[in-house]
Amino acid sequence: MDQAIGNAAINMNLTQYRKVFTPLLLVSIVVILTLITVSIYLIFRVNKKNISVDQEFQSIPKQGQLNKISPPSTKPEELPTNVQQIRQKIISSQIENRNGDLLLAKTDLYEIEYIPAPNVFFITILKEPAKTAKKQAQDWFLKFGLQNSDLCDLPIRFLIRDRNLRKANPNLSSLPDGCTP
After folding, report:
1. Where are the chain's structural domains?
2. Which domain of life is it from (predicted)?
């Protein structure tokens, strides 16, 4: 009998516990499901933001447009003799040595550098008007006696490092005018 009374007391206690813990258990489950739902939402929202940032950068000219630097197709020794001599004259006109990279000209609109390792003349357009800067930089090379067609083989590449300037000039080619990739 004592055992029956003890079991009844345990059953009552379990029943009381069920009454108390059932709502707590339901609230806990709802809280956990809410946290999981919010976490999943935030993860997808962050991924969408990353995608929109990537799309924003895609709207800026890619390396393939203005800043893609295709390797020189003509080696310096394959250039015509007169172009080789003019090329050497251009390189020797340096105004500053920047740890092996040679600054050849600098204006408010552009800088011209010769980078020996890839054997390329880089023209960095610094500010608007970008088309004018490009034209003036090409003219700088022509003053040495080169022809427009020689600029393609020299090789010369145009860069715009400033993001806003690049965005404002999405169709400006990295090649001199009249050159094809």
Report:
1. 1-59, 70-168
2. Bacteria
